[in-house]
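Structure in, sequence out. Go:
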């Protein structure tokens, strides 16, 4: 309960404070906590990407995130689909998710390396944001093949990554581990090997659009009808 000294004159906020006080406080995961402390704008950009995925997958039954990190932003996708499974090859992130599980927003979190093998189940939608640029070029075909095996026949795959052109302006922290950034046409041509339809979007800061690829900081592809 709120102390008398903490009462507000606005009824709406009083109700808000009382409901908040009745629940345990939540914390962001390690990755997003770091962003909040060092560059809060990065959180806005990341959440915008997850909102895009949430809108594209709205109404889907089962969705998989590959390379979820701490999954703090995945809740946006949980709002629009029935079930979300999140995977990461790094045990430390899955442990972090499990420590922060909330009954109303429970995530099925698993350690899995999509380069090594597909999941032994299928999903209506799969998405992977800020992952492909970290995968060595020699492994990208195995990664995409295993994505397709894990996707339903008429499922949709969404992938997002920094553009090759953006790396000239990226900070050292942003560029860390980026071994496979691509231009827009290069990413589209790669994905067309696995999907009949690939819809490409550009992104600058939090704005997703259909603008000129060489001026895009980030690329998002929506892929349908796997081959």
């Amino acid at each position: 309960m709120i102390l008398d000294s903490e009462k507000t004159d606005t009824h709406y906020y009083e109700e808000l404070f009382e409901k908040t006080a009745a629940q345990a406080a939540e914390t962001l995961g390690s990755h997003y906590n770091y962003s909040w402390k060092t560059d809060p704008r990065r959180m806005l950009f990341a959440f915008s990407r997850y909102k895009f995925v949430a809108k594209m997958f709205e109404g889907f039954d089962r969705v998989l995130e590959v390379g979820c990190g701490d999954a703090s932003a995945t809740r946006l996708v949980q709002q629009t689909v029935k079930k979300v499974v999140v995977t990461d090859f790094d045990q430390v992130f899955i442990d972090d998710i499990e420590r922060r599980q909330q009954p109303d927003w429970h995530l099925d979190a698993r350690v899995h390396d999509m380069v090594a093998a597909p999941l032994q189940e299928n999903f209506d939608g799969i998405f992977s944001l800020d992952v492909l640029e970290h995968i060595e070029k020699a492994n990208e075909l195995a990664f995409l093949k295993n994505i397709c095996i894990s996707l339903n026949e008429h499922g949709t795959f969404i992938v997002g990554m920094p553009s090759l052109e953006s790396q000239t302006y990226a900070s050292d922290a942003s560029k860390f581990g980026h071994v496979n950034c691509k231009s827009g046409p290069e990413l589209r041509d790669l994905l067309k090997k696995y999907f009949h339809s690939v819809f490409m979007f550009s992104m600058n800061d939090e704005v997703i659009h259909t603008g000129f690829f060489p001026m895009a900081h980030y690329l998002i592809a929506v892929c349908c009808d796997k081959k």
